[in-house]
Amino acid sequence: MKKSKQLHCLNFKPLIEEAIKKLKNGENRLTVSNYPLKYAFLNGLDTPDISEMLYSDYGMPSENKDIEADYFEEITLLEKMIADANVPIYPADRKKGAKIESAEKIFEGLNRRAFAMLLWNWYAIPWRYKNKKIHVIWSPQDIMGTPIIHSYPLDFFLSYFSSILENQAESQLEVLKQLGFWKNFGIITIIIFAIILYVILYVKFL
């Protein structure tokens, strides 16, 4: 049986650009990126603990209704756009004998939601500013779960964000220093090799 073409988040930038236009303040909620922002900037912040993940998996609502509503609005919009674009969503666990239409629709719907969450994890801006606080959104592990939201005072988050940028700048500077060292080392090596070769040839034909 011919395998379906593998879907990758990077192929859906046009869809995300359209979603940004459709959402209110969309440019502050989604961004077209080659790398998920949560991996770039959320390392170091407290991650959800076991109890939070369990509450999320069971669909317990968070304490931040506004941010949670924004999350579900974004997921629902992505699901609809995926359906409208006829993106081929194939259930990974589909059994060969399963031909019941209602079951097929359920599996397709679940997989479409899972893919919408995958796109959200890649393209969403996972922090939102509201009521003088920064709210960090962690998407649920379960496709029927609720998001986990951590809230931080604005001054704390800005200080943390500044330290991340400082560490990145220091890392880039260190890389540039190493590149400069190896570049100079390579030039010196070539010069020494050329001198040795010249001496060998000079002695040979002397």
Tell me what you see in this structure.
The chain is mainly alpha-helical and about 210 residues long. The chain is about 55% helix and about 10% strand. It has helices spanning about 15-20, 35-40, 50-55, 65-85, 100-125, 155-205, and strands at about 125-130, 135-140, 150-155. A 3-stranded antiparallel beta sheet has the order 1-2-3. A hairpin with a 2-residue loop joins strand 1 and strand 2 (about 135-140). The model is unreliable at about 90-95 (pLDDT under 50).
Give the arrangement of secondary structure elements.
Layout: H1 13-22, H2 37-41, H3 50-57, H4 65-84, H5 101-123, E1 127-130, E2 133-138, E3 148-153, H6 154-204
Antiparallel strand pairs: 1-2, 2-3
Helix pairs in contact: 4-5
Concise overview:
This protein has helices at residues 13-22, 37-41, 50-57, 65-84, 101-123, 154-204; strands at residues 127-130, 133-138, 148-153. It has 206 residues and is mostly helical.
State the shape. extended
N-end to C-end Cα span: 74 Å
Query: What is the N-to-C succession of helices and strands?
Result: HHHHHEEEH
Number of strands: 3
- Helical proportion? 55-70%
Overall structural class, as computed from helix and strand content, comes to mainly alpha
Spatial order of strands in the largest sheet = 1-2-3
